[in-house]
Fold this protein.
Amino acid sequence: VGCRADGIVGISFFSKKMVEINYSNHFIRISDQSKAIDLDDFQGIPFKLAGNRIFIPLKIALSKDLHVDGDFLLDLGSPYAISLTSKTAAKLNLATILGKPVMQIKNRQGGAGGVSEKVDFRANAVMMGTCSLENVVTDYSLDKSGALASDKYKGLIGNEFLRRFDVVIDFPNKVFYFRPGKEYSLPFVSNRLGFRYIDRSDILQDWIINGVYNPSEAQSAGLQTGDRITSLNGKPVAGLTLYQVNSLLDNSSSISLAVNRKGKI
């Protein structure tokens, strides 16, 4: 996340607490069991805890006739909704069943594992407990190593899915509580830029492109991994907030980029 964060807090920090993540009102609250959180309107499902990793059961209807059920790793560092591991994709033969990729991207920096490659598609529905969200932007990994190449779980649950809920993680009792939040009914939106970037305007005044989708308008225009975007529609990216970027994308059919490639604009 570049300059968006000063560091990472791991799950071991919370391991004996109850942790409320309120996506609706943007706060996190950590409590002892003696200071009980009101859970009357929450739904609870047991989770597995292994090596400080949380695994939540999900049911996913990938298409009309194709389903996957099992444990998914809770990844609070992921900006995506649902990511299937390469092992899950191979067992289901997704490359053949889903056909030619709608969008495929190779990220130069894909988390702790380094380079990562994935294919985007839409799942018919994702079910967590009795809650079901439809037309979910999902991806399957092509990685041969790292977290998304494991055969110990089906995939990852990221913040694009979780932000539609408010959640409470009860570590002592290993129960994952959730309720629909303010964004529960929002449609899932696929990547609109055609590329992924890391905001390094803190030290470079730029966004660094770490992956370009194939196919995409960005690829057709010649954008490359490693390019540094200096301005968006004539405005320096160093002065743009995430809200401003999203607002611009919501109201524009095209964008103009100034790109620094090896010292040349």
User: Anything to note?
Assistant: The first strand starts at residue 18 and ends at 22. Residues 114 and 150 are 15 Å apart (CA to CA). The mean pLDDT is 89.
